[in-house]
Specification:
Length: about 210
Amino acid sequence: KFDMTFAFKDNGWILTAHNLPNRINLLEIGKPTTLKRAVDCCDMAIENLEEFFELLESIDANFEVVEPKIKSSKDNWRIIRFYRIYVKIELQNPLNVKDATVTFYGKSAEVQKITELYNNQQGCGDDNVYSKIHHLKYEFEGSNEKSDCGICLEFYDDLDHCPLIFCENTACPQAYHLSCLSHHLKVSNLKILNVAVGQCPYCNFKIQVNSKK
């Protein structure tokens, strides 16, 4: 269900609020002289978003989505999980689903591997980001247990973010919330510009985090 609010201003109807994706600016639909024309313009825009919503529905149905914890029609992104790899998919332009940004989170070696696999895929259909990610699903296997933050011992922090900062020690299983690790390193270690540097609270391996990441 989509909610839209219109107002009559300067001899025309304008859209003042809506719950469509954040990257859609329907406030620029012009100033139709009738309310019906304004609604028709918005209905046309919604029809053009059909592929966008179908793609998000496919992601939600076929992957373990960890963020956003509470989804809304305004979201144009998802974070999904493959074992200890997290993938953030952002649809930069909801009117063109091929305009997608994919970011991988995990240990550097695993991120490098999955990034190369993602970039070098052949024969994965029409380059749809869902098809390419779905193909990667079979490249990684392991425990399905979520890794809670090694500091607060919860999977979600106060902002409903999951732990996406990983210790680079191959023997260390810990991941951390950005907020938790940033606070820990700022309090107990060295901060250079926006980068806090110190030791992993679990294994003492060198670890750092960009507090503005």
